[in-house]
Design a protein that fits this description.
- This protein is α/β, with parallel strands linked by helices and 181 residues long.
- The chain has nine helices and six strands.
- Strands 2-3-1-6 form a four-stranded parallel β-sheet, with helices on both faces.
- Strand 4 and strand 5 form a beta hairpin.
- Helix 5 packs across helix 9.
- The two termini are 22 Å apart.
- The model has no long low-confidence stretch (mean pLDDT 90).
C-alpha cells in the first residue's frame, strides 16, 4: 500500500502510527537517512548508506515481509538524497493501491514548522541556497529573509508552492491521480 500526499501531509507520521499498530512498513526515508529534497539531511547526523547498502536493506525488508499482509510504503521519487530507490520497487509502488493524504495547507505548514523549526538556521539557509536555481531567486530570497527573521512558517509558505508543483508533476508522470493543491 502506497501512501501519497503533498509535502507536509503527514506521510511519515502515518507510517510511524502504522508501525506502532503492528503493521508492516517499509520506511524508505528512515533507511536512506534522508527526508528527500534539499532539506532532507537537516538535523540528521548519520551519513547516508551507500547505494548498495540501501538497496540491500530494502530488498531484505521486502523479502521478509508477510505476503498475506499489506506492506506500507511512502511514494518516493527515484532518489532519496544520494541513494536510488531500486527500479523494481518504483515499478511495484506505481502499480500498488494508494492512500492519499490531503490535509489543509495550514496543517501542512505547521507540521513542517514543527519538523524544521529548531533546525540550525545555517543549515536551512544552505539548503535554500542549494535550491535557488529550482526555486527561483525571488522565492529563495523571500524564504531566506524569513529564516533570518526567525519566521519558519513564512519560509515554508514561500517554498511550498514549488514543492507542491514538483510533487504533482512527479505523481502525474508516475500515473498517479492529481491531488488538489
Amino acid at each position: 500500500m502506497v501512501v501519497t500526499g503533498l509535502t507536509g501531509a503527514g506521510k511519515t507520521e502515518l507510517l510511524a502510527r502504522l508501525t506502532a499498530e503492528g503493521e508492516q512498513v517499509l520506511d524508505l526515508e528512515a533507511l536512506a537517512r534522508h527526508r528527500g529534497s534539499s532539506f532532507g539531511r537537516i538535523g540528521i547526523r548519520e551519513p547516508q548508506p551507500s547505494h548498495d547498502e540501501f538497496a540491500g536493506t530494502v530488498a531484505r525488508t521486502v523479502a521478509t515481509a508477510d505476503p498475506t499482509r499489506p506492506l506500507w510504503v511512502e511514494h518516493e521519487g527515484p532518489f532519496i538524497g544520494s541513494v536510488g530507490v531500486p527500479p523494481w520497487l518504483v515499478a511495484a509502488m506505481d502499480a500498488a493501491p494508494a492512500v492519499h493524504l490531503d490535509p489543509p495547507r495550514a496543517e501542512r505548514v505547521a507540521r513542517l514548522a514543527a519538523t524544521y523549526g529548531d533546525a540550525d538556521r545555517r543549515e536551512l539557509l544552505a539548503a535554500l541556497a542549494r535550491s535557488r536555481r529550482r526555486l527561483g531567486t525571488e522565492r529563495e530570497s523571500r524564504a531566506s529573509r524569513a529564516v533570518r527573521a526567525g519566521d519558519i512558517e513564512a519560509a515554508i509558505d514561500a517554498v511550498l508552492p514549488w514543492f507542491d508543483a514538483a510533487y504533482l508533476r512527479r505523481m502525474d508522470a508516475r500515473g498517479r491521480a492529481r491531488a488538489a493543491a
